[in-house]
Structures are given as C-alpha cells and as structure tokens.
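Memo to structure team: turn this sequence into structure tokens by end of day. - J.P.
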Amino acid sequence: MTHYNLTRPIKQLSDALANQIAAGEVVERPVSVVKELLENALDSNATEITISVEEGGEKSIQVIDNGQGIAKSQLGLAVSRHATSKIETYQDLTAVASLGFRGEALASISSVSRFELVSRQATSDCAWRIKVAEGGSCTEPEPIAANLGTRVVVQDLFYNTPARKKFLRAARTEFSHIDELVKRAMLSRMDVGIKLLHNHKLVRQVESADSREQQLKRLTRLMGEAFVEQSLHIEFESQAIKLEGWVGLPSFNRAQNDMQYIFVNGRIVRDRLLFHALKQAYSDVLYSGRQPAYVLFLSLPHDQVDVNVHPAKYEVRFAQSRWIYDFIRRSVGGVLRQPLSQEDSVNKPQADQSFHKLDFVYNPSVALTQAGDYKSTLKFQQPLSWPLQALAEPKPGAYQSGELVKPNPASALDMPPLGFAKMQLHGVYILAENQQGLILVDMHAAHERIVYERMKQQWQSQRFISQPLLVPISITLDAAFIKTWEEHQAWWSELGFELEALGPQQLRVNAVPSLLTKADIAQLVQDVLSDWANTDQSERIDQRINQLLSTMACHGSVRANRQLSLHEMNALLRDMEQTPSSSQCNHGRPTWIQLSMKQLDALFMRGQ
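Reply from structure team:
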C-alpha cells in the first residue's frame, strides 16, 4: 500500500495544476465538454448552433453559435478561472437563470486540451481569436474573419493528462453519450436550430420550431412517430409553476427508461424526486415491469429551485419539494386516468382548485391519431354522467333476430366514444361500432378495471375503519425511524393504524386497516418509515391495498366464455366510458382497440 508523505510543507498550487484539478469535476469525458459549450451557446441567445466532433470527441470538438459573442477585451478573461458574466452576487446564485454559471468551464477545458476561442460581436468589424497554450498561458487576441457569434475548438482532449485519457471508451461509445445529450438539448430548446456532425457526417439536424405543428414535427424526428401518435399534450399551471409537454399513453411503454425526458426551466436534469413522481403517476395503469415515455417541461420561479447542488448541474433541489411532487403526480396521473366520457368535454371546476389549467389531447386508441388533432379544456378526475336517454341504443333482441341495428343518424353526434355493441366473439371479445369504425373490447379485462376502480372508491370511503389485532405486533426499529413515526402519527391514524411507542427503539401495532389484516405488517411499517426517512413521502400502503383490491377485482370480474346479451354488452361499454383508467386493465394491458374505416379499407385494399 502506498502511503502519502504528510510532512511536506503546504504550498500554493500553480494555476495550471489547479485548473486540471477543477477539470476533473467539470470535464469527465468528451460529452462533458459538449455540455458546457452547448450551454454557453444557449445562454448567448443563439438561434443556430452547430456541433462537430471527431473520433467521439477525443480528437476534436467544435461548437459554433450565432449568439451575441464575446468582446475582444474579455476573451482572455473568459478562459480564466472564476470568471463569468452570469452571476455577480450571492443573490444571483440563489436564483440562477442561466444554464452555465460557475465560471470554471472554459478554464477547465482549456487546461486539458489544445484550445481555441473565436468570437465576434455585432459592433465589431471582425472576429478575434485567442489560443490557450500548455500551462494555461493565453495568446493575445488576433483578428480573423468569422460570422457573428462564437466558435470554440477543443482538440486532443486529455493529451496532457494520459491517466485520465486511458479511461475513455471507444469512439462510438463516447459519441453515443454526445448524441444523447444533443438530442435532449433539441427537445429542451425547440426555439433553437441545432446541427450535429460526427467525423464530418451529419447525424442530426433540426430547425427552430415555434408553432405547435412545427414542434410536433420536431418531436416526431427525435422521439419517433409512434410516440407522437400515442401521446397526450398536457398543460397545467398553478401558483407560478407550470408543467407542459407530452406524456405517452400507458399502451406505449418501453422495456427501459430510455424515453423519459424532463427539463426544469430549460435545464436537462436527472432528478430522483421528479422521476419518482412520474413513476407514481403511471402506477396502476402501466404493465408490470414496463417503463413510460414522456417529454415534460417544468417551469417555476428561479428562486424556488437550487441548481447549484451537483458539479454537472444534473440534479436540482426544490424549495417546495413535496408540493412539486404532488403537483406532477396528480397532474399527469389525473390525465392518464380520465374516463372516456370526458373526451371533448368541458367540466365544472372541482372544489380543489390547486391545479386549475389543463389543455390536452386525449385519444386512448392504439396509434390512430396524432397528438394535436383536437383539444379540450377540463378538470381531471371529475365524473361526467353520459346522457344515455339521448342515445339511439339498439332495440332489445335486435341481434338475436339477425338484424344489424345502427344508431339513428340524427343522433350521430351523440354517439358515445365506444359506440354500440354488435356481437360477442368466442365469449371473449365484444365488437362494437362507433363513429370512427370498429371497436374491439376484451370484456374480462375491461370489467376487471371497472370492478377494481369501484372497490378503490369504496376503500377511500371506508379507509378509516380499523381492525384491532388479536395479538398486537411489536417491531424493533432504529431510533431515527421512531422519530419519523412521531413526526407523522396523524398520517398513520388517518389510514386506520393504531401504533404506540414501547421504548426508544420499539413500536407496537394494535390495529390496522381492515384490508391489511393478513399482510406482513412489520415489514410494511418498516418499509413505509424507511420511505419517509429517505424521501419524505410513501405510497406503500396505498400500493399494497391496491394490489389486494386488484386481485379481488380479477376474481370478481366477468370470466371469459360467458355469453352476454346485447344489453349487457352495451352496459359494459357505458361503464367503461365512465370509469377512470378503463383503457387499461389492472395489470396495464389494453382493454380495447380502435380500427378506423381507413384502416379497415386498407386491409381489404379498397380504393387501391
């Protein structure tokens, strides 16, 4: 083992060595360089940015923008440590509005590469160039012909720090990180045109997108046509906080979390709180083990979010983290659980005015309509009774007599979303006709969701009912968990638990919610307290109860091969339209699909 000589005298580090140490925090690999330079370009109000890399960025990285540029007199200062135009006082640091702000990036990058900076402002007749030599010395600015804006050239990354260079991966791997970063930037700043080249070949290019139509085209290029076709556009705003973007339907899911993008004030983040809130929003509607897809933008006052908590600025801290968590979870979760009958409807405001603006596109069919085709403004999770008496339902017995009954054309506009049943197929599927074409319904999966949602409503109204335990359960816990329990005693009581402390490290459970009498109470209590201690929130109890209710609903729903009358089939369709999350069963599988007349015509080659 190597031992350090602690008897050396304390000395001031040279600027070159200090810069290289700082580079270890800022410049981890080529993508770190691209991130810092790209953020600077965006902060300069550029509308066009070109990123060109060679050999995964190890050989060369060049970022060109048409931003406001840097004055000749400040070029040398720009590559020195702790120099920035973005913050001046501590108050600026508590409300950072720019992407880059630490004043370390260019100095750190130039200390581990062959570095050149060219910039021209609108007031200058020419551009000016400086180079940073090994050791950190900077050349005097020299005139050069160049367009308005800034060009940064970084060559031979880590040429003077071979120990760090040996940790780089293959060029393809390093470029894949750069490509993903640029893709995120293209999503986060749709108002900026961005181009990416690798080894002089164009890899990605997007034009600036201001209108919704242009944004959808850009979204299609970056996320794929399937995501756009199976996503909802949402817009919520409350208390100066806004959430906007696209959330994929539960039917559009992934094996990995590779299509989850969330931006805070335009900043690319990987924040556990936000990801967990969205995971909870999709709980109960997503197939087990699958991942949702979304592109979301969270905007809030800059003094309500601290972006100075992570060296790479990927993590943030919110002043009202619990409120943000609930805002996102309830907003997205509410949209995903909309009853079908609320489609294209305007509802009365709820008593809860916490979240009061929703502008979204809703089409629960499987990849049939593009997001953006039609919009509605409404309240989420607010049941809307469908006027059944206004509908032209099929006559009783019509199917048995062989008559194919169609709704009265005069009431076509009143046809419900899932239309009217026509027949049952092999005791498993219901075939129905609606305005768009043919509806196929998995009757067991649909009824399972209906029963499950009703049981959840019943549980919500009876959750205060406790069941005393014949033999109370004693649980030994860390003292910190006991303190957490003391801070949330009222929360436990509201759920129907009766807990008391037996000592500094022991709790006794005397009663539990009636539905949890057969659960592993000791483990559940420990897990919940662990959640509260680590994240200041827990949904484990509701999740456990929902699991029990889901199992009960599965056994209590209509079974396959049961023959239903036409009246029963239509009743099931109407119940589906009134039930939240009815487009998926309790396990996340689709309960129905739509085949449009256009699709049916294509199957039979009509019109070809």
